């Protein structure tokens, strides 16, 4: 897990895991995630999960106590995070298979799912104008089916992404990205502030309370 950056230090840090739905090295969605730490509210730390391409295709025969290491790493990273940010491209009118596969692994078994009650912000970056809405809709629907708590809009839908982002060098010397579009920066602020509030108020946990008697074993 590679850390993109840290927001201003506060009394209590929220650890937010960022996941890109694209494996492409120069992905617009990965670059969008790299641009978030400087825009995060005080007390929020953003880390990036970089092992999505190592997660095997879901196979229930492999979903045992000794499941593949990349799967354990994914589940642990999600479970230990206070919240998630998922940025995804749109492939053929929906979300990429690699992202859906990761969600399938993370959501099982339901009673101990890493996604159960997890607060999530969804975003999309696209080089064109017309794509992205279907990916946002489908991603929200899939996460809702996994009983995650998805922050509602206004969503960060970064169209014409190449014209609204610039590559830069961070303080640590690593490549980073700067969002140059004022409206997108404003939407990022709204979404990350809403995520912070939802986590602190345990909105995800409260949302799944009615479900717990049906999925957790009786004592």
TrEMBL record:
Protein's recorded name: NAD(P)H-dependent oxidoreductase
Source taxon at top rank: Bacteria
Pfam families per UniProt: FMN_red
Residue ranges of every copy of the NADPH-dependent FMN reductase-like domain listed in the record: 15-161
Organism: Streptomyces tricolor
């Amino acid at each position: 897990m590679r850390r993109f950056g840290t927001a201003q230090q506060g009394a209590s840090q929220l650890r937010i895991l960022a996941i890109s739905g694209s494996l492409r090295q120069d992905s617009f969605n990965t670059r969008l995630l790299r641009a978030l730490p400087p825009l995060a509210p005080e007390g929020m730390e953003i880390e990036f999960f970089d092992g999505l391409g190592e997660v095997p295709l879901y196979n229930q025969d492999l979903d045992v106590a000794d499941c593949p290491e990349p799967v354990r790493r994914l589940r642990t990273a999600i479970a230990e995070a206070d919240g998630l940010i998922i940025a995804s491209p749109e492939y053929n009118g929906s979300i990429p298979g690699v992202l859906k596969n990761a969600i399938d692994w993370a959501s099982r078994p339901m009673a101990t799912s890493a996604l159960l009650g997890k607060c999530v912000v969804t975003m999309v970056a696209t080089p064109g104008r017309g794509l992205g809405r279907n990916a946002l809709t489908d991603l929200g629907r899939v996460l809702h089916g996994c009983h995650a708590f998805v922050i509602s809009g206004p969503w960060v839908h970064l169209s014409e992404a190449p014209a609204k982002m610039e590559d830069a060098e961070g303080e640590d010397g690593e490549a980073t990205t700067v969002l140059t579009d004022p409206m997108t920066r404003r939407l990022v602020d709204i979404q990350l502030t809403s995520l912070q509030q939802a986590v602190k108020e345990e909105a995800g946990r409260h949302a799944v309370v009615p479900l717990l008697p049906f999925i957790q074993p009786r004592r």
